[in-house]
Amino acid sequence: MIKEKVLKEKNHLIKKKDELKFGFFEAKKDTRIFALLFVEFLISVAIAVSIFFYLDPETDIVPFPWGIPIFIVLMVLLAMVFHKTKEFREERKSKA
Question: Disulfide engineering: 54 pairs with which of 7, 20, 71, 72, CB 3.0-4.6 Å?
Answer without folding.
Answer: 71
